[in-house]
Amino acid sequence: MLEALKNVSNEQDRKVKLVGAILNILSTTPSQELSYYANQPLYKQLGNYIANKIPKEADSSKVLSLIQRVISRCDFRLIEDYLFALETQDNYLVNLIESEINKPDFQQKVDHYRFQRLTKGNRTHNRKLILKDNPEALFSEETPGDIIAYVADPTLKNTFTSLFERSQGHLSEYIDTHHDLLGLYSLIRKGLVKSIQLNSDQFIVTKRDNPDKKGRFLTEQRNINRISDILNLKHQDSFVDLSDQSSIHKVRLKLIKPFAIFADKQQHKFYSLAYLQEGKTLEEVLLYEQDPTARFEHLKNSQKILDFLYEKGVIWGDMAPRNTIVNQMSGATDYYILDFEKTKILNHSASLTERQEHCRGQMCVEEFGAICSLEEVKTCFRGYFEPEKWDLNSLDPVPFEKPKRELVAIFEARGEEFYTLGAYNRLEQQVMKVRFPFTDGAKNKRHPLHICFKIDHYLGSEYDQKTTELLMSAYEYDCLPDTMDILEQALQNLDNRLILGDLATATTYNTLQENRQCYEYDFLEEVINGFYDRKEESHQFRLAINRYNTGLKLYHIRLDEVTKRHGISLAKSNCEALRTTLHRILKSAYANYRPTLILLSGGFSRGEITYGSDVDVGIVSDKDSSEIKKFIKNSISEELSLSSDFYLDVTLQDVEKRFLGDPSLLEDVLHGQIANGDSKAIQSYEQAKKRILQNKNYLATAVPVFIPKYQVGDETEVQIKQYLKLCNLTLALAPHVGVNINKGILLSIKDFLLFYKNEYAYEKSKYKEPNVLDEGVMSEIGLYLRDQSSALLAEIDRLKHQLKLDQS
Fold first, then answer.
1. What are the Cα distances from residue 361, in Å, to 23, 320, 356, 435, 451?
2. Which residues contact 618 (CB under 8 A, 6 or more apart)?
3. Are 249 and 166 members of one domain?
4. Do 199 and 272 fall within a single domain?
5. Nearest CA among 325, 319, 339, 336 for reference residue 272
6. Which residues belong to any copy of the Polymerase nucleotidyl transferase domain (predicted)?
């Protein structure tokens, strides 16, 4: 029976096993690239994505073994090249990946093949390379040509030329088809910074101009050249020794300097190329370093770097732990500095006022404060950053050339166009309460600025300002950790979505355009706006925490379901996630308004909560029910983000009359459950329900209204819902009508339909086109359900005939 349904189930079981195996590989195989964003929900999504891409006919064991080797040895995103090769039966690429994965130039070969495949139809002619002796020529509108390049180190001209020849003249396309350089913040600079294997033992990093920041690229290149001259750091190995008697090891300052820059005149793009420097960013080092002595040493060295640059007249506007690479060796620590878009170069040593203004910018609080305590920052930048000395009552205007953007935004949002230095200082001290790391009640280290930094890049400065203010309210209401939990989970969901998208587009021509049409973006915006709108009222703010926690629970339950593929288990899990909050709401409503009974019907009573479900409530009361209905409706909306309908509003004495008078309430009679009420009222209701279902006249009238309606449906999504209702009615009515059914098969069909009902709603909520179910499967399900339900109708017809005979 239902062979097609069994085939679908078998295919699901195969994928479940694959997902489990992939989850195990992802969880147990060390991967530096994957470690930056490692989390179990990501592994579940990756596992499901990869399992769905493995062809049925492929040798699963062989494929899984290769995937594990890719993860352990290479960039995990090369998995997509392998999956693409299997899917398209590209035998050359399959053989390349399977036979050469252990070779040192493996990634270079795969990347090059991807470039050739993706740009095959776009390479209209070979472009010419023109080398210039002056970088300014690249930015001149009058300079003709295709690719205009400047190679700073003459000894590396052959290196650049060979790279140009490898790309067959299409160097910008060659770079763009490579993967982004992975790191703590690689997702927020999508498409701008790439990693390329130059040869078997050397990688380079390319950086292209950001089209949203016109002129910054040129400014940075000029600043790098000037700093290189000022500090006499002409070559890759040049350094300045900053060691002194207090140094534990030698302290050396080095500069990340591109060995080449070029302009693609046809596409109006600019790129810089530099060797990939080994080491970790200072942010990564300080994020995980717990030893106070080691932390102090790094911060002391940061102060040395800052003071040295000040003395040379360099105000490094982008000074930040994330822009410093640390390479610790035996007896020496090298600090490589990079990113000079906002650097200001003076013709004199920076004055104390200039130094203090620089430290009142982003560097101390927003950059070092992201991973250092306030005391660490004050100690490191003593003399320049001393918030305890700020004048909080000054009526002077703000003297800074560039006041902090986020503080200005908060003033503007409050309608304060003019503000004094005292007001500015007071606001910054308030903001600082939600800037620096802290340890929560569970002894976990929390980093509020990581949230703000990501939101600023994902959603823009307006949402950064809102996030700062809502965190200030959370701090005031003593619920900062709970609020951060929600924001961090929402950001993690978005990160995971972007990583999955990065993998899915790894075999396409990447651009800088990011698809913002996805649920995770919308949910993050909804959370920020929701908290921000409630920031002035503590009770509403806390209700929002409950509401968004519920939304996140449902999101993660769905990810769990991906690895199980059972509709009923998902629905029950959804119900469980909502049950506690819903029952608390109804219990509170019952206690405050004292109705006779509160009933539940619909999906909640049947254990079928899916995406887009609402809550069907019945009120049995002798009093006016308008206030209790208002309370329930508002509470469910606020705390569960669900809508609610009231299918019943009647006194206990009139329950039976109401149901018997309206055959359309048959489903509510069959599936309705009592949520609250005293024992006497519950007993009366159950007796009335029993009498209704024993009333042959009622069944003879009500059943024919429903079953024919659910036996048809045009669209697949409608069919799923109709057939599910038909299945439920058949299961519930058969005992009352006296028809024998195969309960096991009907429950299997219900499981199957419920899963796909949830899938359709979920996919649509994520702006995706749902996967269409096989028409043959739906046809067989429909035939079987119509056969079973028709037996019910036949019995009802017999019952009607018998009733007429009895009446006559």
1. 44, 12, 9, 14, 19
2. 597, 598, 599, 600, 601, 646, 647, 648, 649, 668, 672
3. yes
4. yes
5. 339
6. 590-647
Share of the chain above pLDDT 70, in %: 87
Neighbours of 278 (CB within 10 A): 10
Please spell the DSSP secondary structure of 545-605, one letter per residue: HHHHHHHHHHHHHHHHHHTT--HHHHHHHHHHHHHHHHHHHHHHHHHHH--SEEEEEHHHH
pLDDT digits (tens, 9 = 90+) for 231-249: 999 887 899 999 988 878 8
CA 183, distance to chain mean position in Å, is 16
Amino acid identity of residue 112, one-letter, is H
Q: Could you tell me if 230 and 345 are in contact, meaning their C-beta atoms sit under 8 angstroms apart? A: yes
> Can you give the CATH number for the domain in which 342 is found?
1.10.510.10
Angle (nearest 5°) at CA 18 between 12 and 19: 85
Q: Rounded to an integer, what distance in angstroms lies between the CA atom of residue 180 and that of residue 799?
A: 71
The answer on 303 and 261 residing in a single domain is no
CB burial readout 604-637, b (16+ within 10 A) else e: bbbebbbbebebbbbbbbeeebeebbeebbebbe
Q: How far apart are CA 641 and CA 800, in angstroms?
A: 45
Is 4 domain-assigned?
no
Domain match, 706 and 612 both: no
Radius of gyration of the chain (CA): 33
Query: Containing H/E element for 12?
Result: helix 3-28
Instruction: Give the 3-state secondary structure of residue 208.
Output: strand
Question: Residue 29 in contact with residue 71, Cβ under 8 Å?
Answer: yes
Give the Cα separation of 275 and 196 in Å (integer): 10
Instruction: Give residue 367's domain range.
Output: 283-383
- Domain-embedded: residue 1: no
Mark which of 541, 562, 583 sits at the end of a domain: 562
pLDDT, one tens digit per residue, over 717-766 is: 667 777 778 888 888 888 887 778 777 777 777 777 777 776 666 565 55
Host H or E run for residue 632: helix 626-640
Query: What mean pLDDT do residues 650-668 have?
Result: 89
**Cα distance between residue 190 and residue 174, in whole Å:** 16
The CA distances from residue 360 to 314, 356, 384, 437, in Å, are 16, 6, 8, 19
The whole-angstrom separation of Cα 585 and Cα 574 is 17
Whether residues 633 and 536 share a domain: the answer is no
Lowest-pLDDT range of 421-425, 606-610, 664-668: 606-610
* Two structure tokens written together for 428: 């910054």
| SS3 per residue for 339-384 | CCCCCEECCCCCCHHHHHHHHHHHHHHHHHHHCCCHHHHHHHCCCC
This prediction has a pTM of: 0.81
Q: Both tokens of residue 590?
A: 């019952």
- Supply φ then ψ for residue 647, to 5 degrees: -85, -10
Query: Token digits for 135?
Result: 């970088």
pLDDT of 2 over the 50 cut: no
- Residue 112 lies inside a defined structural domain of this protein: no
Same structural domain, 225 and 269: yes
Identity of the amino acid at 668: D
Q: Do 129 and 271 sit in the same domain of this protein?
A: yes
- Of 254, 276, 298, the residue that ends a domain is 276
Specify whether 294 is located in the same domain as 351: yes
**Residue 111, in any domain of the structure:** no
Sheet holding 332-337, edge to edge: 240-241, 250-255, 332-337, 324-329, 280-281
Tally of domains in the chain: 7
Picking from 395, 400, 388, the residue whose alpha carbon sits closest to that of residue 421 is: 395
Cα–Cα distance list, 485 to 86, 447, 481, 527 (Å): 40, 11, 6, 12
Task: Quote the pLDDT of residue 5.
Answer: 46
One-letter amino acid of 596: T
